[in-house]
Amino acid sequence: MLRYLYGNDLNNFPLLADTMFRDRAEQFSRRLGWDVHVDDAGHERDEYDDMNPLYVIWEQADGRHGGSMRFLPTVGQTMVNDHFDHLTDGVHIESPLIWECTRFCLAPGADRRASAALALGAGELMAAFKLRHYVGVFDPRMERIYRLMGLEPEVIGTAGEGKDRIGVGLWSMNEAAFAPTLERVGVDRETSKNWLRYSLGLGQRVATPDAISASA
């Protein structure tokens, strides 16, 4: 199932949080070789994890992390504005209708639904919060993943060549993407909406935890 958790609520899900940050260390530090900080607990965290971001997390049946993304409104501090504004010619991207998406991570051995589930979660967030765009930095690896999911961004700027190429892009709402994404995850739209409602307490029609788990 999908969980939508603010940073301040991660302590309520210690196994999920622990395995998410460990999987981030495995992916970004050990496998991809990024220059990121891994603490003594084996967690990959940065300053943006201390800003109460909203995480979309694919939770496996055993309660462990299967995949995740991190979201922050661009009206506050963001990675793209703080560290990658050279890709936008110094223009800061700031709007209550644009959120930044970072740290797309899949657990080692994650089930085949994980990537599609994260794409589904991003779409549900955009619909629920009436967002117009996501902004994010991507490399060739993520560019291939987005292409496979049918979620290619509008590229704002790039730098570098080959495997060292990075870019900044904008993603817009695409209602047509819901149907194939739901099919890949194996759930209907009402179940998907209920995952969001249950996590964030949005609306009146929320599913019980047992009902949500049964549909995952």
Protein topology:
Blueprint: E1 2-6, H1 14-31, E2 54-59, E3 65-73, H2 79-83, E4 98-106, H3 114-128, E5 133-138, H4 140-148, E6 154-159, E7 166-172, H5 178-185, H6 189-200, H7 209-215
Parallel strand pairs: 4-5
Antiparallel strand pairs: 1-2, 2-3, 3-4, 5-7, 6-7
Description:
- With 216 residues, this protein is α+β, with helices and mostly antiparallel strands.
- Helix content is 34%, strand content 22%.
- The chain is built from seven helices and seven strands.
- Helix 3 packs across helix 5.
- It is globular and about 40 Å long.
- The C terminus is likely disordered.
End-to-end separation in angstroms reads 5 Å
Q: Which parts are unreliable, with pLDDT below 50 for 5 consecutive residues or more?
A: 204-216
Major pleated sheet: 7 strands, mixed
Beta-strand residue fraction = 15-25%
Oligomer: single chain
Gyration radius (Cα, Å) is 17 Å
List the total number of helices: 7
Shape assignment:
globular
Helix amount, in percent? Answer: 25-40%
Strand order of the biggest β-sheet: 1-2-3-4-5-7-6
Structural class: alpha+beta
Number of strand segments? 7
Order of helices and strands: EHEEHEHEHEEHHH
Mean pLDDT: 89
